[in-house]
Automatic annotation (TrEMBL), chain A:
InterPro entries: BCAA_transport, Leu-bd, Leu_Ile_Val-bd, Peripla_BP_I. Belongs to the leucine-binding protein family. Keywords: Amino-acid transport, Signal, Transport. Residues 26-371 form the Leucine-binding protein domain. It comes from the Bacteria. This is ABC transporter substrate-binding protein. Residues 1-23 form the signal peptide. Pfam families: Peripla_BP_6. It comes from Geomonas propionica.
UniProtKB/TrEMBL annotation, chain B:
The keyword rRNA processing does not apply. The chain crosses the membrane at residues 20-41, 61-82, 94-117, 144-162, 183-211, 231-256, 268-286. CDD domains: TM_PBP1_LivH_like. It is a multi-pass membrane protein. It comes from Geomonas propionica. Pfam families: BPD_transp_2. PANTHER family: ABC TRANSPORTER PERMEASE PROTEIN, BRANCHED-CHAIN AMINO ACID TRANSPORT SYSTEM PERMEASE PROTEIN LIVH. Belongs to the binding-protein-dependent transport system permease family. LivHM subfamily. This is Branched-chain amino acid ABC transporter permease.
Length: 379, 294
């Protein structure tokens, strides 16, 4: 009898051990972000957010009982490094999907790798080239620059302004914006009178602005990321530039208002809704996601959650949804992603299809204006 | 008339930017003149001036004047530590080795500042408001006047120091001939240290007065340093008027180029001028060719 009990106990113990050993291994997800280097303002909040969301999913029991394992590498905003790390994720770490990279350059560089390895990629970069033309394994969460341009042009048309000046930064972000501004102008009946650029590290743009002041332009659109646009806002105030100034979504954070100070008053820009989440009407579909993200980010990092972090939030949540529906294989995830409809995330309401792997419309942006050092919605 | 207005604005903006370059150029020249090395960490002194002022102002809550003094003092101490730890121990190093060391130091300083204070750009409030002042149809900010004023003071100070004090004369003696200076009893090592002190202080001061205009971050030193270096080369690495004129010309040409030709070529113009001068007049725009005395 004693023997029987001990055997039973031993086998029970063994059974426990074996189930522990047999517990499903975690689902490996790769992440590439430019945490250091010139694009670190994108990569850092993205990495923070991705890790935060994955930790929370795991704490809540994982996806269908399986934990997620996030393997993150830093590309430094360097396309060569991004390629090496993407290869590492695919070959050594054998991830089922990759989120990131942060920049358009890095994303374009690794597309051939994920296409060949047949691993789905959800890029967090904005360049429209990433998903146009559609690549089978590539999706993105960041809003296309073209949508931001459309939002500004729509407003200009409403205000009956047809002659504009553009001032864009001479890096990838500015070049893409400039391309879109020029391409869409004719469609909205807008004429670009002056087309100037400035260097990302320039500290004085009065020369360009004096030229614009001398032209017949009725509005100025400036495309860049901090600190350039803040310098432009200050220089415009110094020169007494009287035409309305529009900025890009590249400066849609409180940092811009802080840097530009009083000079930011009255500047309008298209922004993801995360900036004005508390101002949105109660029935806005994104409101719940937005408020959850902002509160979470504030709790974890004591900083304002911005739309860059939002791109990573969207990528992880889309992936979670796809794994729930399509299983843990790369092919299953890809198909489930492509069939995702009406997912209300941070960047907008995503509806992917076989013809559209960007998934957003221009309603992903909302036009905001700086008033009394804060954002207000432009009606 | 409109064009004239624009050109006045380009020139005034250019002069304002140019005096920043001139100030940084001067601090390059001071070290070069007593040691024969080009200190590529000079831009980092400029950055430290701005970043440390903002830190003292926002985190330590010092009043503006105290914050500026603290920033200049701390940067000067960093200059001294740098000279003691990285330059002095290498007694017989060639200038080339020392230059490479300064590049290393600049990367180190930049990295440390990034880790300590993050990568965000910060702005310093303007010293006396931001209401533009109108001059002959062009506008400039009160901060520009501060920059002009400080530049003039620093030039006068340098002139008095180098021509009318024993230490200044001794430093110049070192630059002419180190061995001879040593033989007549000048402590060359001390003069080198002095030059780092002055140059770090001038660099930091430049960083402080431009921070309200250009804003500052851990990586602003690189471009400002290069532009200042350009100015110093144009002036023939002299610590006087040549460098100042070099800076002003550079700033004005940049601004005119950006306004009248194309803004895309702004930096190209600066570096084109640098190359041109190095090819045609390596001794600087305003210096006569040196003759070897036997």
């Amino acid at each position: 009898m004693k023997k029987l009990v001990s055997t039973a106990f031993a086998s029970f113990a063994l059974f426990c051990l074996s189930t522990a050993a047999l517990a499903a291994p975690p689902i490996k997800i790769g992440a590439l972000f430019a945490v250091t280097g010139p694009a670190s303002f994108l990569g850092e909040p993205e990495r923070n957010t991705a890790q935060m969301v994955v930790d929370e999913i795991n704490k809540a029991g994982g996806v269908k009982g399986r934990k997620l394992e996030l393997i993150t590498y830093d590309t430094g905003g360097d396309a060569t490094k991004a390629v090496q790390l993407a290869n590492k994720l695919v070959k050594n770490d054998q991830v089922v999907a990759i989120i990131g990279p942060s920049t358009t350059g890095d994303s374009m560089a690794i597309i051939p790798i994920v296409e060949k390895a047949q691993v789905p990629l959800i890029s967090c970069a904005a360049g429209s080239k990433i998903t146009e033309p559609v690549k089978k394994w590539v999706f993105k969460t960041a809003q296309n620059d073209g949508l931001a341009v459309a939002k500004i042009y729509e407003q200009l048309k409403k205000e009956k302004k047809t002659k504009i000046a553009i001032l864009t930064v001479s890096d990838g972000f500015g070049a893409s914006g400039r391309e879109q501004l020029k391409a869409q102008a004719a469609h909205y009946g807008i004429q670009i009178l002056s087309d100037d650029t400035y260097g990302p590290k320039d500290t004085d743009m009065t020369a360009q602005l004096a030229k614009i002041r001398g032209s017949q332009a009725q509005a100025l659109i400036c495309w860049g990321t901090n600190p350039g646009p803040a310098v432009i806002a200050r220089n415009a105030k110094q020169l007494g530039l009287s035409i309305p100034v529009y900025m890009s979504h590249g400066v849609s954070s409180k940092k811009f208002i802080e840097l530009a100070g009083d000079a930011a008053e009255g500047i309008k820009l298209p922004s993801g809704k995360v900036l004005v989440a508390d101002l949105l009407p109660k029935n806005d579909k994104q409101r719940a996601s937005l408020l959850a993200f902002i509160k979470d980010y504030q709790n974890h990092f004591r900083a304002e959650g911005d739309h860059f972090g939002g791109h990573a939030w969207d990528a992880v949540m889309l992936l979670k949804g796809a794994i729930e529906k399509g299983g843990d294989t790369s092919a299953g995830i890809r198909n489930a992603l492509e069939n995702t409809r009406n997912f209300a995330g941070i960047g907008g309401i995503f509806s992917y299809s076989a013809k559209d792997h960007a998934g957003l419309t221009k309603d992903a942006f909302t036009l905001v204006e700086v008033r009394k050092k804060d954002w207000v919605l432009v009606k | 008339m409109e064009l004239l207005n624009q050109v006045t604005q380009f020139v005034i903006s250019g002069l304002a930017t140019g005096s920043i370059y001139a100030l940084i150029g001067l601090s390059f020249a001071i070290i070069f003149n007593s040691t024969g090395i080009i200190n590529f960490a000079q831009g980092e002194f400029v950055m430290l001036g701005g970043v440390l002022t903002i830190f003292s102002l926002n985190v330590l809550h010092l009043p503006l004047i105290a914050a500026i003094l603290a920033a200049v003092a701390v940067t000067t101490v960093i200059g001294i530590v740098f000279e003691r730890l990285a330059i002095r121990p290498l007694k017989n190093a060639t200038p080339l080795m020392l230059i490479i060391i300064t590049i290393g130091a600049s990367i180190l300083i930049r990295g440390l500042v990034m880790l300590l204070w993050g990568k965000d750009t910060q702005a310093l409030p303007a010293f006396s408001g931001t209401d533009p002042i109108s001059v002959a149809g062009a506008t400039l900010l009160p901060q520009h006047l501060w920059i002009f004023g400080v530049t003039v003071l620093v030039i006068i100070g340098c002139r008095l120091f180098f021509n009318h004090t024993i230490s200044g004369k001794a430093m110049r003696a070192c630059s002419f001939n180190r061995r001879a200076a040593n033989l007549v009893g000048i402590s060359v090592g001390r003069m080198v240290l002095f030059s780092f002190v002055i140059s770090a202080a001038v660099g930091a001061l430049a960083g402080v007065i431009i921070a309200p205009l250009t804003m500052t971050a851990y990586d602003v030193g690189v471009m400002l340093g290069l532009k200042g270096f350009c100015a110093a080369i144009m002036g023939g690495m002299g610590s006087g008027l040549g460098t100042v004129l070099g800076g002003l010309i550079l700033g004005t040409l940049e601004s005119l180029g950006a306004g009248l030709i194309s803004s895309g070529y702004k930096d190209a113009i600066a570096f084109f001028i640098l190359l041109l001068i190095l090819f045609i007049r390596p001794q600087g725009l305003f210096k006569k060719g040196e003759t070897e005395r036997v």
